[in-house]
Amino acid sequence: MIKQISRLLGLQLKNFMNINVYANSKDIKKKKETKGRIWVYGILIFILWSYEIAICVGLSSFGMGELIPPMIVLIATCLIFLLTMIQAGGTIFETKSMDNLLAMPFGSAAIVISRYLRMYIEEVCISFATILPAIVIQAVMERGIGIGFYLFYLLAIVITPLFPISIATIVGAIITGITSRLRHKGLVYGVFSVLSIAGILLLSGSSPEGIESLAIMKPDAIKNLVLDSIQSTYPPAIWMGNAINGVQGSLKDCLLFVVLSLFSFVVMAVLVSIFFKPIIRAVAGTSARHNYRITSLSSAPLKNTLLTREFRRYISSGIYIANTLCGPIMALVFSIALSVIYNQDDFVAKVGIGRDVVDRIYPVFIALIICMMTTTCSSISMEGKNWWQLESLPVKAEDLYYAKIKLNFIAFVPFVFISQIIMLITVRPSIALGLLYLIVPYAYLFFAAVWGLFINIKFPMFDWENDAQVVKQSTAVLLGGLGGMGIAGIASIPYFVFSGVIGELIGLVTSAVFVVVGLLLFNRVKKYELINISN
Amino acid sequence: MLSINNLTKTYRGSSKGVHEVSLEIESGDIYGFIGPNGAGKTTTIKCVVGILSFQEGSITIDGVSIIDNPIECKKKFAYIPDNPDIYDYLTGIQYLNFIADVFEVSAQDREEKIKKYARAFEIEESLGDLVSSYSHGMKQKLAIISAMIHEPKLLILDEPFVGLDPQASVVFKDFMREMCSKGGAVFFSTHVLDVAERLCTRVAIIKDGRIITSGKMEDIVTNGNTLESIFLEVAGDDKANI
Q1: Are residues A256 and A310 in the same domain?
Q2: A219-228 contacts at long range (C-beta below 8 A, 24 or more positions apart)
């Protein structure tokens, strides 16, 4: 069994971070894809580290250094959980290589565990990247640090990913199992995944009691409040934090965390292995009715038929739906939550800022959330092995690109529109601010959609085995999604700097600029012939 | 119908590709394109259909250049690759409707043609199922139907008989002959030399990216030889690869 796992794992790790393709391929585009991905990961790590260093230095300077370990373990856990939640089902039940694997002498458990371990190794890297700044800052700024500090941090790096990956894998297996026998499994999988994430968002949206007095509390009281908050969210973070801080009697709790994490792995391995073959057969299998009779057929204009095809492509992939609809769903959940508490007396205490600030931030905030992951960032790559078809058909590149951008609007607008209506009714803004509510999200979305398409044309990825590789890990998704959001965020700074009518005017001008830049960029995009994307 | 003049295509970082390939395919021709593995058949075909760009030469279909006017050119032919990866998220009929819309086939025409070809290939009952549930042969049949429904002037096929059952092969060969008798043309690559010998009116043999010989079948296969013996003779050391 261990030999089987190590062979399968070795095979999967051979192309870790696309290194094998980079080393052995003569294809310049593939090398560029890998280089781009490494650059983007570097930028993401830089942003994460900047954020963490600011928190850790702040806490340490105010004598609250012991908050750092539990907070950082919690941040790593949340990050890993969110990253694996959407892709776990698709990774464990990946079907492309299944015929080969099942024909070879590998057991279900070996396949499941090797795929789990591949995710685990990826997430240990993320755990390491997340926890490293905390170790360095504490080592530099805190006194009396012993060897135990480093050993327990090392343990935290290795153990932290186990529990969230196991939970994400079990949830992924349940969703995959339920949806695998359905005809439109992609659509249902996507909806289930998005609902799960929305549920988690709503459940984690409550704030701890007593936070209204934060400004007048003493450091010890703040420390206790934060620890209580972490305790109520994820107790193992406190257990691990206590062990790193060398709190008396914390070894027992730390051991409990290790045992719990390993137990979650065993439960996952046993449960998923038992149901692996029936689920994978159902996933790989397809329903065929063999009862079709040709009746009257109708024709449609080319632009409509391209859009219909885009729509069917979109709803066929659960991971694609879940990953892209996360932003609009978050916008909707956020708007609903805000409308519920908006007129409550303790609004300021709950949100941390005044209503007037929230009113101004809202349209740009919603715009940034929906720009985070547009459908266009991966829509060229998602064509995969079918790309030859579009290359050889008499289809103008421009028409195809229009269809891809239109689909982005069709998928996102319902969520954005409902969010806008909710907040317009709740806030009752001035005419100028109301205009911003209505215009800003669509203007930013238009720019982000064109930007995503442009980046995907520059960094296409057609040779993929699993949708998750395109939707979660490709350079285009990282650069297109986060890059689009970053550009939009930077461009919005003047809007936040100036208040009142001038600020609102700047907001409208910024939106107009995004539309114009989007149009200019599209003008450039439509000149890219389909043949040049893959060549 | 199809004119390839001095086509040269090499891949970056490699000397492989095709060099100075010239071919003329006339109306009524069923043109076989044969050669060992890696000889350049698929590269040539992909250049013709506009999937690969090329460094030198010209390709015109019915007088229209694939480089200067790709959209008009693509309206004149249909292409089926060696392993047709068709949109497996569509049903068979959705796929055929998509292709018919792209080529602006009227509702009435598409209905007639889909009925005709689907019944001939015996896949009418499966057209309501997702392509992902199809076998390789069924996908091949669907790709052939999609290629025929808009009545192209030229059919370009890469290994079209792989995966087809014997009955479907016979039906398809009949359709090819019917199409050519009406002034169309077929250009296809194959490794099945006896099929090529019986079906094709013209043939070209390519080796190491260069055309070794080309012409009418009766001019190439002479003196009691077979296409296979001719091929082995000209392909030389590559006979093990056939």
Answers
A1: no
A2: A219/A62, A219/A63, A219/A64, A222/A64, A223/A64, A223/A66, A223/A67, A226/A64, A226/A67, A226/A71, A227/A67, A227/A70
- Residues B197 and B235 both lie in one domain: yes
Can you give the three-state secondary structure of A459-481, one letter per residue?
CCCCCCCCHHHHHHHCHHHHHHH
Query: Which residue segment(s) compose the domain that A151 sits in?
Result: 2-8+28-284
Of B75, B89, B99, which has the smallest distance from its Cβ to A312's Cβ?
B89
Q: Half-sphere exposure of residue B99, counting CA atoms within 13 Å on the CB side? A: 31
Segments forming the whole domain that contains residue B21: 2-76+152-241
User: What domain count does chain B have?
Assistant: 2
Please report residues of B whose CB lies closer than 8 A to that of A318.
Answer: none
Which is nearest to A51 in space by CA: A141, A134, A126, A124?
A: A134
B172 in Cβ contact with B160 (< 8 Å): yes
Side-chain half-sphere exposure of A383, counting CA atoms within 13 A? 22
Q: Select the residue of A292, A309, A313 nearest B126 (Cβ to Cβ).
A: A292
- Say if strands B2-10 and B77-80 run parallel, antiparallel, or are unpaired: unpaired
Q: CB-based contact (8 Å) between B53 and chain A? A: yes
- A297–B85 C-beta distance less than 8 A: no
Spatial strand order in the sheet of B154-158: B77-80, B154-158, B185-189, B30-34, B202-207, B210-216
φ, ψ for residue B212, nearest 5 deg: -85, -45
- Hey, is the C-beta of B145 within 8 angstroms of any chain A C-beta? no
- Radius of gyration from C-alpha coordinates of chain A: 25
Which range in A17-31, A285-299, B7-21, B185-199 is most confidently predicted, on average pLDDT? Answer: B185-199
B34 φ/ψ angles, rounded to the nearest 5 degrees = -120, 155
Query: Are residues A379 and A323 both part of a single domain?
Result: yes
Per-residue pLDDT reduced to its tens digit, B2-37 = 999 999 998 876 677 899 999 999 999 999 999 988
Q: Which chain B positions have a beta carbon within 8 Å of A316's beta carbon?
A: 89
Q: What tens digit of pLDDT does each residue of A417-436 get?
A: 999 999 999 999 999 899 99
Q: Which of B:188-227 have CB within 8 Å of A? A: none
Q: Counting Cβ atoms within 10 Å, is residue A37 exposed (0-12), middle (13-18) or buried (19+)?
A: buried
Q: Say if the Cβ atoms of B12 and A302 lie within 8 Å.
A: no
In a domain, A21, yes or no: no
A394·B125 Cβ contact <8 A: no
